[in-house]
Amino acid sequence: xxxxxxxxxxxxxxxxxxxxxxxxxxxxxxxxxxxxxxxxxxxxxxxxxxxxxxxxxxxxxxxxxxxxxxxxxxxxxxxxxxxxxxxxxxxxxxxxxxxxxxxxxxxxxxxxxxxxxxxxxxxxxxxxxxxxxxxxxxxxxxxxxxxxxxxxxxxxxxxxxxxxxxxxxxxxxxxxxxxxxxxxxxxxxxx
Length: 191
Hints:
Layout: E1 2-6, H1 11-22, E2 26-31, E3 46-49, H2 55-64, E4 69-72, H3 79-84, H4 86-107, E5 111-114, E6 116-117, H5 140-158, E7 163-165, E8 168-169
Parallel strand pairs: 1-2, 1-4, 2-3, 4-5, 5-7, 6-8
C-alpha cells in the first residue's frame, strides 16, 4: 500500500513510518519541520517539506505517488502552549487538517488515520475513560482535535466512500532502538 504520513518527522509519526516500511508499505512523508526533525525520517521513505496549509502541494504529492491512505500526525500538541497561543493550534491542527482533507478529495484519496487525543474528553466524571464517554475538552489543544473529529464525521456522512479512524492517545512514550525515532524537541509551554 502507498501511505502518506503527515507529520512523519515528528515523535509518533516517525515511529509509524518505520513500522509501515518494515511491514512492506511504500511511505511518503510530508512535514514542515516546525517541530519535526529530518533526521527522524527513515531514509527508505520519500520526504517532502510541505506545510499542511499548502493544499495544492499536498494534492500533487498524493496524486504523483498514487497514495492509498493518509496517516495524519502533523499537529501542535502542547497543552500549556495552546492556552497562551490558541490561534496557532486552531490554525495548524484544525484548519491544517481541513486543507489536507481538501487535498485528499482533489486526489481521490478516501482513507485517513487521524491522530487524535484523550484531551478531547476534558475532565471526565468517572474513570476509566471509555471511547463512548462525553467529549468536552478544557483547553484549545483538545478543542482543536475535537473540531477535527467533528469535521471527519460530517465529511464521512457526506461522502460514503470516505472512511477514517481517530485513535485518542493517552501517554505516548518511548523511542526506537539506536535513537532512530523518538522525542527530541522541548516543549515551549507546559504539557
